[in-house]
Amino acid sequence: MGIDWLTIHGRTRHQKSTEPVDYTAIKLVKESLSIPVLANGGIFTLDDADRMYNETNVSGVMSARGLLQNPALFAGYKHTPLQCVEKYINLALAYGTPTAIIHHHLMYMMESLMSNVERKTFNCLTSIPAILDHMAYYY
C-alpha cells in the first residue's frame, strides 16, 4: 500500500536542538520522493518557515517548540497575543488540563514578555488560582 506523505526533521536524534537544521538533507529526501514531504526543525518565525520551504521545496512546514512559544505563529504574529493566551487558559480549564501542563505552556507563551524576576515568580506558582491571579495582575 505504501505511504501517503512523509514528515522529516532536519536533525538526527543525536543532535541538539541548538544545532542547525540540515536543509540539504531535507531537500535530497524531497527530490527523491513523489509523495508530499513536510519538514520540521528550527521553525520559530514565518521567516524560518519561508526559508525552509524555499530552500528545500517541501510540500509543507511544521513547527513544534516555535508553536509552543507562539501558537499564533502561522497567523503572522511575532509574539503570542494576549487573546490567544486567554483562549488557551479557557480551553485548558474547560478540558481539565493538569496544572503542570497549563503552567508549562504558559511559560513558553509568556517567556518573551516576562522579566527575569517575573519568570522566577511565575515558576514558583503551583496552583490554578495562583496562576490565574498572576496573569490577571500582570496582564
TrEMBL record:
Enzyme Commission designation: 1.3.1.90
Annotated keywords: Oxidoreductase
InterPro entries assigned: Aldolase_TIM, DUS-like_FMN-bd
GO function terms (MF aspect): tRNA-dihydrouridine20a synthase activity
Keyword Oxidoreductase set for record: yes
UniProt domain DUS-like FMN-binding: residue ranges: 2-116
Class of enzymatic activity (EC top level): oxidoreductase
Entry annotated with the keyword Ribosomal protein: no
Gene that this sequence comes from: DUS4_2
Gene3D superfamilies (alphabetical): Aldolase class I
SUPFAM superfamilies: FMN-linked oxidoreductases
Record's protein name: tRNA dihydrouridine synthase
Regions annotated as coiled coil: none
Pfam families: Dus
